[in-house]
Design brief:
This protein has 27 helices and four strands. By secondary structure, it is mostly helical. Among the domains are: 142 residues; 172 residues, Orthogonal Bundle (Tetracycline Repressor, domain 2); 115 residues, Methane Monooxygenase Hydroxylase, Chain G, domain 1; 54 residues. Strands 1-2 form a two-stranded parallel sheet. A two-stranded antiparallel ribbon has the order 3-4. The chain is rod-shaped, with a radius of gyration of 68 Å.
Length: 815
C-alpha cells in the first residue's frame, strides 16, 4: 500500500514536472529549447511526456481552428483587398524601378564624387592623426636636437638637464615608436659622452691653472703690496674691513662669467662682487686669467650623474699632485730674487685658486683639505727656504728675500692661512742676514783700512770742516779756534768707519721691518748685531792691520789715536740706536754696546805692536854695531850706529806727541830698557871671550850717549832721572870696571845703599874673566921667554883675587 502511495506521489511529481516543461516550451524562444528537451530525455518518463505533448498540441490545434473559423470572413475580405492592391503595387514598383534607374544614371557622378569625398575624408583623418602624432613627437625631436646642439657647443650641464627632461617627460609619451627606443638606448651613451667631455674640460682647466698659477700669484701679491702701501699711507685713518677688501681684490683675478645655465653662476658672481661700491683700480688683464666654469659644470654634471664623490676624489688627487710639483723649488732658485719670486707666485696662485674653489663650491674642497695642503706646503716651503737661503752670500739678496717672504705671508694671511711659522723662520734668516752683513762689512772695513793714509785729515775751509764733523761726532774748541788750514787728529778711516757702523745699523733695521716685532726686540736685535760687528768684524780688521808686517810706527801711532776717538764715539752710537728704536738705554733688557772694549783692545794691540816694532828697529841698529873688543885706543865719541839709533828714537818719539801720555812714556821706557838690555847682552855675549879696557871705554861712551838721550826728555811727563834708570845696570857695571873700584863693591855688597847695588856678581865675574883672558894673552905675546913684569903680575894677581871673591859671593848667594 505504501508502495502504491509512493508510486502515486511520484506520478504526481512527474506530471507536475511535465507541465512545467511544457509551459517553458511555450514561453521560451526556440533557440533556447534545447536544454529543456535535454531535461526530458535525461529522465525515464519521456514516453508519458510525449503523450502529454501530443495532447497539448491537439488542444492548441482545436483553439486555432476555433479562432480561424471566427475570423475567416475577415480573412477573405483581406485577401480580396490585397489582390486589388497588388496591381497598384506593380505600377508603383515599375515607377520606382524607372525612378531608380534614372536616379542611378543621374547619381553616378555623385557617387564618384562621394567616393572621392570619402577618400578625402579618410586622408584628412589620417593627416589629422599624423599631425597629432607628429605634434606629440615634435617636442621630443626638438629636445633631442637641442641636446645635440648643446653637446656640439660644449654646454654640457644644460645638455644634461635637457637629457633629463627628454628621458623623464617627453620620451614616455611616445615610447611605442622605434626612434624613441633608439633614443632611449642612446641616452646612457650620451651621459657617458657628457661625463667624458666634462672630465676632459676639467683636465684642461687643471692644466690651465697650473700654467697660470704664476700669473695668479703675481697678481695677488701685487694687490697685497698695493693694499699694504695704501694701509701705510692711511695708517692714521684705518678702514674697517680692509682685509675683506684685500681678499675681494684678489678674487677679481678670476673670470666669473659662468654660463647662466649653471646653478652656481649667480652665487659665484655674488661672492666675487662683494663690496662693489668700493671701487678700486684692478690690475689690468686679470679677469681673463682663469675661467672656473669648467670645474663648476663638471661638478654639477657629476653631481647629477650621482658620481660627485668620484669627481671630488679625482679633483683633490690631481691638485695634490700639482701642489707637490709647485712646492718643488728649482735647483738654482737661490741665485736670483726672480727665482724666489716665481716660486712664491706659484704657491700663492695655487692656494688662491683653492680658496676660490672653497668659497664658490659646496663641498668640492673643504677647510680640512685646504688646511692639510697648507700644512704640507708650509713645511716644504720652509725647508726649501732654509736650504736655498743658506747659499745666499749677498745681504741685499737676503733682505729682498725677506721682503718677498713677508709679502708672501701677508698675501696668504689675507686668505685665512696661518703664517706664524714663516715669521718664525724669518728670525732664522735674520741670523743669516746678520752673518752676510758682517762678511760684507768685513770687506768694507778692510778696504777702508787698506786705503787709509794714516795721516791726520787736513781741512782748508769751513765747509770741509763741517763735512767731517757731520760724518763723525767730534768737538774740540781749541781746534775750532785755529785758523785754516788745520788738521783733525784722526785720519780718514775714523769718519768712514763711524759712518759704516751707522749704515750697518740701518741695514739691520731694514730687516726688522714688517716682522711684527716689538721695539724692544728690534732694539735688542740691532744691538746684538752691532756688538758682533764691533767685537768680531771691526776688531779682526783692526787686528789684521796692526799685525801686518809692513806696518810702520807712524801708522800704529795713528791707529791708537783713531781708536781713541772711535772709543769716545760709542756713546753717540748708543744714542743713535735709541733714537731709531725709541727704546731707552735704561730699559732692563737693553743690551749694551761693546765698542769701548773693542777699541781698547785694538789700541792695546797697537801699543804692544809699537813696543815690538821699536824693539825690532833697535835690534836692526844694534846689528850694525861693530866693536873692536881687542882695541887699545881710547875713543872720544860714540859709535856711529848708536848716534843713528838715538836720532831715530828722537824723531820717532817726536811723532808720539798726539798719543796719550802713558802710551808715549811706556813706549819710550820700553825702548830704553830694551836698548840697555841689548847692550848688556852685546857686552856679555859668549862669542866675545876677551876684551880690553880700551874697548870698554868706547862702550862706555855709547852708554853715555844713551844716558844723554834719556836726560834730554824725548817724551814729556817723566820725573827727573826716571828714564835714566833704564841704563843704571850698565852704568854701575861700567863704573865698577873703569874705576876698578873692587874694594868698595866687595865691601858694600849686600848693603841696601851700596854704590854698585845693580851689579850682579855673575855679570861682574863674566866680564872680569874676559879682561883677564885678554891680559894673559897680551903678557904671553910680549914676554914669550921672560917672566911677567912686576906690575902686570900684581894686576893679574888682583884680578884672580877679585875673581875668587866674586865666586865666593856667587856660591854664598846660591847656598
Amino acid at each position: 500500500m505504501e508502495r502504491g502511495k509512493m508510486a502515486e506521489a511520484e506520478s504526481l511529481e512527474t506530471a507536475a514536472e511535465h507541465e512545467r516543461i511544457l509551459r517553458e516550451i511555450e514561453s521560451t524562444d526556440t533557440a533556447c529549447i534545447g536544454p529543456t528537451l535535454r531535461s526530458v530525455y535525461d529522465g525515464e518518463e519521456h514516453g508519458r511526456f510525449m503523450e502529454k505533448l501530443e495532447t497539448r498540441i491537439r488542444n492548441h490545434d482545436r483553439e486555432i481552428e476555433k479562432m480561424c473559423n471566427f475570423h475567416y470572413q475577415g480573412f477573405v475580405d483581406s485577401i480580396t483587398e490585397l489582390l486589388k492592391v497588388r496591381g497598384e503595387a506593380q505600377k508603383l514598383k515599375n515607377q520606382v524601378t524607372d525612378t531608380n534607374r534614372k536616379l542611378q544614371h543621374e547619381g553616378k557622378e555623385l557617387v564618384i564624387a562621394m567616393e572621392e569625398l570619402k577618400q578625402c575624408r579618410l586622408q584628412q583623418r589620417n593627416i589629422s592623426a599624423t599631425v597629432d602624432k607628429l605634434m606629440l613627437c615634435l617636442p621630443v625631436l626638438e629636445m633631442y636636437s637641442k641636446l645635440r646642439d648643446q653637446m656640439k657647443t660644449k654646454r654640457h650641464y644644460p645638455a644634461l638637464k635637457t637629457l633629463e627632461h627628454l628621458e623623464h617627460t617627453y620620451l614616455p609619451q611616445v615610447s611605442h615608436y622605434r626612434f624613441c627606443k633608439v633614443m632611449v638606448d642612446n641616452i646612457p651613451k650620451l651621459r657617458e659622452e657628457i661625463k667624458d667631455v666634462s672630465m676632459s674640460d676639467l683636465k684642461d682647466f687643471l692644466e690651465s691653472i697650473r700654467k697660470h698659477s704664476d700669473k695668479i700669484g703675481e697678481t695677488a701679491m701685487k694687490q697685497a703690496q698695493q693694499q699694504r702701501n695704501l694701509d701705510n699711507i692711511v695708517l692714521q685713518q684705518p678702514r674697517i674691513g680692509s682685509k675683506r677688501k684685500a681678499k675681494k681684490d684678489a678674487y677679481t683675478i678670476f673670470d666669473t662669467e659662468i654660463e647662466s645655465t649653471s646653478p652656481k653662476s649667480e652665487q659665484d658672481s655674488g661672492i666675487l662682487d662683494v663690496e662693489d661700491e668700493e671701487d678700486e683700480e684692478e690690475v689690468p688683464g686679470t679677469q681673463d686669467l682663469v675661467d672656473f666654469s669648467p670645474v663648476y659644470r663638471c661638478l654639477h654634471i657629476y653631481s647629477v650623474l650621482g658620481a660627485r664623490e668620484t669627481f671630488e676624489n679625482y679633483y683633490r688627487k690631481q691638485r695634490r699632485k700639482q701642489a707637490r710639483l709647485v712646492l718643488q723649488p728649482p735647483s738654482n732658485m737661490h741665485e736670483t730674487l726672480d727665482g724666489y719670486r716665481k716660486y712664491f707666485n706659484q704657491i700663492v696662485g695655487f692656494f688662491v685658486v683653492e680658496d676660490h674653489i672653497l668659497h664658490t663650491t659646496q663641498g668640492l674642497v673643504n677647510r680640512a683639505y685646504i688646511d692639510e695642503l697648507w700644512e704640507m706646503a708650509l713645511s716644504k716651503t720652509i725647508a726649501a727656504l732654509r736650504t736655498h737661503s743658506s747659499y745666499c752670500s749677498d745681504p741685499n739678496l737676503v733682505l729682498d728675500l725677506k721682503n718677498l717672504i713677508v709679502l708672501f705671508a701677508d698675501t696668504l694671511q689675507v686668505y685665512g692661512f696661518p703664517v706664524n711659522q714663516l715669521f718664525d723662520m724669518l728670525l732664522e734668516v735674520r741670523d743669516q742676514y746678520s752673518e752676510t752683513l758682517l762678511k760684507k762689512w768685513a770687506g768694507i772695513f778692510r778696504n777702508i783700512l787698506d786705503s787709509d793714509n794714516y795721516s791726520p785729515i787736513p781741512v782748508t775751509s769751513e765747509e770741509m770742516y763741517k763735512k767731517v764733523v757731520g760724518q763723525f761726532p767730534f768737538q774740540d774748541i781749541e781746534l775750532e779756534k785755529q785758523p785754516f788750514p788745520k788738521k783733525f787728529p784722526f785720519s780718514e778711516f775714523v769718519p768712514k768707519v763711524y759712518s759704516q757702523i751707522k749704515e750697518f745699523i740701518y741695514a739691520c733695521l731694514k730687516f726688522s721691518e714688517d716682522l711684527h716685532l716689538s721695539t724692544t726686540e728690534i732694539d735688542d736685535m740691532i744691538r746684538k748685531s752691532t756688538n758682533l760687528l764691533l767685537t768680531r768684524t771691526l776688531s779682526n780688521s783692526l787686528q789684521n792691520v796692526i799685525k801686518r808686517k809692513n806696518i810702520g810706527l807712524t801708522e800704529l801711532v795713528q791707529i791708537i789715536i783713531n781708536t781713541t776717538h772711535l772709543e769716545k764715539s760709542c756713546k753717540f752710537l748708543e744714542e743713535f740706536i735709541t733714537n731709531i728704536t725709541n727704546v731707552l738705554p735704561e730699559t732692563v733688557h737693553t743690551s749694551k754696546l761693546y765698542g769701548t772694549t773693542t777699541f781698547k783692545d785694538a789700541r792695546h794691540a797697537a801699543e804692544e805692536e809699537i813696543y815690538t816694532n821699536l824693539n825690532q828697529k833697535i835690534d836692526q841698529f844694534l846689528q850694525l854695531a861693530d866693536y873692536d873688543w881687542m882695541t887699545g885706543d881710547l875713543g872720544n865719541k860714540a859709535s856711529d850706529y848708536l848716534v843713528d839709533l838715538i836720532a831715530f828714537l828722537r824723531s820717532t818719539f817726536a811723532v808720539f806727541t798726539h798719543l796719550p801720555g802713558k802710551v808715549a812714556q811706556t813706549a819710550c821706557m820700553s825702548a830704553c830698557k830694551h836698548l840697555a838690555t841689548s847692550l848688556m847682552q852685546l857686552l856679555l855675549e859668549a862669542e866675545v871671550r876677551q876684551l880690553t879696557l880700551g874697548a870698554l871705554q868706547q862702550f862706555n861712551l855709547d852708554v853715555r850717549e844713551c844716558e844723554q838721550f834719556a836726560r834730554s826728555g824725548p817724551v814729556p811727563g817723566f820725573q827727573e832721572d826716571t828714564l835714566q834708570l833704564a841704563f843704571i845696570d850698565l852704568r854701575q857695571l861700567l863704573d865698577l870696571f873703569i874705576q876698578w873700584d873692587w874694594s868698595t863693591y866687595l865691601a858694600d855688597y849686600g848693603q841696601p845703599n851700596c854704590k854698585y847695588l845693580r851689579v850682579n856678581p855673575v855679570t861682574a865675574l863674566t866680564l872680569l874673566e874676559k879682561i883677564s883672558r885678554e891680559m894673559k894673552d897680551t903678557s904671553r905675546k910680549n914676554n914669550m921667554f921672560a917672566q911677567f913684569r912686576k906690575n902686570e903680575r900684581d894686576k893679574q894677581k888682583l884680578i884672580d883675587t877679585v875673581a875668587k871673591q866674586l865666586r865666593g859671593l856667587i856660591s854664598s848667594h846660591h847656598s
